Amino acid sequence: MSMLRVAAYVVSVLLLLAVIGFFFVVAPLVDARYNDTSVEPPFRASDAGKALHERLMVADLHNDFLLWNRDLLSSYERGHSDLDRLQTGNVGLQTFSVVTKVPTGSYQGTPSDSDQITYLVAAQRWPIGTWTSLLQRALYQSKRLHDFADRSGDKLTIVRTQADLENAMMARVDEPNRVAGILAIEGLHALEGDIDNVDVLADAGFRMMGLLHLHDNGLGGSATGMEKGGLTPFGRSVVRRLEERKLLIDLAHASTEVIDEVLAMTDRPVVVSHTGVRATCDTPRNLSDRQIRAIAARDGVIGVGTWPSVVCSTDPSAIARAMRHVADLVGVEHVALGSDFDGTVTPPFDAGGLSVLTDALLEEGFSESEIRRIMGGNVVRLLRRTLPVR
């Protein structure tokens, strides 16, 4: 064999190994690397915390599980959640959020001219259409959740209407391991500039619509974008369409101007699915006291996150302190959990270890009735008011 043929053979083998590595090894490694916890399991809570947590029905406002090539019905050692861990953590209502674009940047400023999700989508062997279309990425993740529900034997159901929610809550009385899922989207750049795609997403089951993610988009400014401006004309038309369809508006990641403008042009309650508060962790990503008061005045709910960038600590007590600040400022009825599990964050526990947070809330001085509202009741109340009747 000539040296040229040997070289060609070696190059071919290396290319094949690179392709295999990209499509079958890279994504699980990224998943394990970026969806870790700051504390190694098992997660330990006090006897009082565990006993109370067993009596709760947890509702979590934000989870990015659908971004990763894991089967929700299988158990994993990587990541933050799967059906088994949701059940262990007494999660009865889980918002599954869909991510379609993540540019490179930071909380100090994220330009919109790059996208890391394209590489992840390709590495995970998603359908070719999702490689170039943000809308198709959203619809594919919706299909994944519906497939999980279909295969779950009623352990997972999807909530679209008020009746679905009531049925799910009633079913948990006899079967406490059942989990209800709600579809949300993190950033309506997935509309691809076409307002009629609001209806496409709604028809696919989406009920919570986040206008922005980490970067400015065609609707307006992100709290961590480059311009941080208000709503665009397209953004205002989209907000009106969301109100017409009775879809819950999520103001997580929105700039100050966008929050003010959305509240000025709408009447229904809003949600901030996952955030921190500047009073306990002063970053551009978090809400000011003025914003908290404005959202509460609309009977909105604020989901407090679990990761260090929004609570400025890896200790669960920091999450409880942020929740305490919101409760003292506007009332406990406006506080909820927005974990951001599987969102490339590093919380101090995973979904199966949520009793650690219940323990921290007890230590913070919340009563059992207050903890019931924070850990689930407030989200159920919000959804009862905002979900479509049918």
TrEMBL record:
Query: Which InterPro entries does the UniProt entry name for this protein?
Result: Metal_Hydrolase, Pept_M19
- Biological processes per GO annotation: proteolysis
List the PROSITE patterns hit by this protein, alphabetically: RENAL_DIPEPTIDASE_2
Taxonomy, superkingdom: Bacteria
Cite a single Pfam family from the UniProt record.
Peptidase_M19
Q: Name one GO molecular function term.
A: metallodipeptidase activity
Q: What is this protein called?
A: Peptidase M19
Give the species.
Answer: Longibacter salinarum
